[in-house]
Design a protein that fits this description.
By secondary structure, the protein is an alpha/beta fold. Helices cover about 40% and strands about 15% of the residues. It binds adenosine-5'-diphosphate (ADP).
């Protein structure tokens, strides 16, 4: 069995030898071995492939010299020498008469090398039988997973979240190599095969990728989930070009290890919520129409707090409650909802509809529908102040920047990566190190005098930096101010990515920290809008969505 990674690999050639090919899909959790064998700036896929080969053996592997990362992987594997057949195919970067000739020679050399290694004979009949026929063009709305190759788990997550069919248009997902219509004389064979391989929808490493418009100009394309791999620049470039167009698009970057639990689904679902036809609608059972006394509940099950909001049919907040999220998200949701009901003097049976949101929404066993925090915070913030065009939500484990249009619809959003920097958790840890309560940090920040920059991006290193600043007798207020600036600088980067514009509203627990607010205001040059209780904005949005979906039913 030959394994390959790139769609330009001549798999029909191997079929001619009677040998099957399989695309190698590395499934790795870390880069422990890869990072010991090569430098860490290989792209995420290169590192994953190397890790997989070092862990599970290289096997018979055909690589293509796509980029420096794959060349380095080849170098390491060749030096290791555990593969019975390891080959680096030289792929031209353009499709011209000259490059077809060159590639034809490269294919012929590969064929000779494989025949010499395996002792097998090539059959033209088998070769011809291996070509697939062209897939029909889509004739109904669909979503495209575009960009750099995606792991099976990413493709599966997109498919599971979308009610529209998903087409895998990533660099390896779309392989359109077709047999030339007429039988070929032997001398023309190699060049015709080279032309068929090079004539595919080009990948971004080709000099002229204009043929890729085939993918993005389909009239049935409803939206694009664009995947980039860390340190792979080819596809970042295409994303920035597409982003300037009108196609609904969102970017997901991975390093090829499994994404942080919940985060990937939230990103995909939040994007699909902006394309109503792509989001599966949960059937509305049991929510029989009720009178104007009906109430609506929103529950936000966050990593740190669980918040419930009760809304009347005329959109008045009847009561809300914020409780800490304990080990069991379901119990906290119960507690928050019951406490809100008690405050409002209402009964559970009076709730016409409940929408849940937040990281734990899938696990709390409450509610008629789950909606992402992105949509809910946007909804809540716009309700509180229709001037809002950018929402900055910093919670316990996530920070998000959400861009709204004039009607309050989400037009773009970004989230922090799987890293605590720039989140409430970062501040919680630093408060512990400084032996203070996180709720006092904002006030302490007011007394700062000396500018201190916390330069570490990683939370763990930042903590060591704080410990060393304490040892240097730096004033607590100055350290706290430095920490708040570090959070604001993370947010500044997210703001730039969505081309943020005012008015800005801050939501989430960290909005209660006036020091962080001031540091962000310095970045935006505008005052931040703030609601009376910023922590409940997501639950409020969820309650509003509950009311709206009830009214529509
Ligand atoms: P999640 O939605 O992830 O549960 P929250 O929106 O509840 O997160 O925000 C939790 C974070 O807010 C905490 O990690 C803490 O840093 C911060 N926070 C909560 N209350 C306060 C407060 N009174 N003053 C300052 N920061 C606070």
């Amino acid at each position: 069995m030959i394994q390959y990674i790139c769609k330009y690999t001549p798999i029909e050639l191997f079929a001619g030898f009677g040998v099957e090919c399989a695309r190698r899909e590395p499934k790795v959790e870390s880069f422990e071995l890869a990072d010991g064998a090569a430098h860490q700036n290989l792209c995420g896929f290169g590192r994953a492939l190397l890790e997989d080969c070092l862990r599970n053996g290289t096997g018979e592997l055909v690589l293509v010299n796509c980029c420096d990362s794959i060349r380095r992987v080849y170098d390491v594997l060749q030096q290791r020498g555990d593969s019975p057949f390891l080959y680096l195919l030289d792929l031209p970067r353009c499709e011209t008469a000259c490059s077809r000739k060159r590639f034809a020679q490269a294919l012929q050399q590969l064929s000779e090398a494989y025949a010499a290694y395996s002792g097998l004979r090539f059959s033209y009949k088998r070769f011809c039988a291996a070509f697939s026929s062209a897939a029909p063009s889509p004739d109904a709305p669909y979503l495209s997973l575009l960009g750099a190759r995606a792991s099976e788990s990413l493709l599966g997550a997109v498919q599971a979240s979308s009610s529209l069919p998903v087409q895998n248009d990533t660099c390896t997902g779309r392989r359109d190599v077709f047999l030339p219509s007429q039988a070929l004389p032997e001398e023309a064979f190699w060049e015709a095969y080279a032309a068929a391989l090079l004539g595919q929808t080009p990948c971004m490493r080709m000099t002229n990728p204009s043929g890729r418009r085939r993918i993005t100009e389909s009239p049935y394309l409803g939206g694009v989930i664009y995947h980039t791999v860390k340190f792979c620049d080819y596809y970042d470039y295409e994303y920035s070009v597409l982003k300037q167009g009108r196609l609904p698009i969102t970017k997901i970057e991975t390093d090829y290890t499994p994404p942080a639990p919940g985060q990937l689904e939230t990103r995909i679902e939040a994007f699909l919520e902006t394309l109503p036809e792509a989001k599966p609608q949960k059937p509305q059972e049991g929510s029989a129409k009720m009178d104007q006394n009906a109430i609506f509940a929103g529950i936000d099950s966050g990593s740190t707090s669980t918040n419930a909001v009760l809304l009347s049919a005329d959109k008045h907040i009847l009561a809300y409650c914020v409780v800490p999220t304990g080990a069991r998200a379901g119990e906290s949701a119960h507690r928050a909802l019951n406490a809100a009901l008690q405050k409002a003097g209402r009964r559970r049976e009076e709730i016409a509809r409940t929408v849940t949101t937040g990281y734990g929404r899938a696990h709390i066993g409450e509610g008629d529908q789950g909606v992402t925090e992105i949509t809910c915070h946007a909804k809540g913030a716009f309700f509180l102040n229709p001037q809002v065009r950018t929402v900055i939500d910093i919670g316990g484990q996530d920070s998000k920047v959400i861009r709204l249009d004039d009607a309050g619809r989400v037009t773009d959003f970004v989230m922090n990566d799987k890293c605590a920097a720039g989140t409430g958790r970062f501040l919680d840890m630093m408060a512990r190190t400084l032996e203070m309560d996180v709720s006092h940090m904002g006030e302490v920040d007011r007394g700062w005098k000396e500018e201190i920059t916390i330069s570490s991006i990683c939370t763990v290193f930042a903590e060591s930096e704080v410990v060393s600043l304490i040892a240097q007798n730096k004033r607590t207020a100055d350290i706290v101010h430095g920490l708040h600036k570090s959070v604001a600088s993370k947010i500044g980067a997210l703001l730039a990515r969505v081309k943020a514009a005012g008015a800005y509203m801050m939501t989430g627990g960290v909005a209660k920290n006036e020091g962080v607010r001031r540091a962000i205001e310095e970045k935006t040059g505008e005052p931040l809008l703030l609601s009376e209780e910023p922590q409940i904005c997501g639950a409020l949005g969820a309650a509003l969505l509950a009311l709206e979906s009830w009214a529509k039913a």
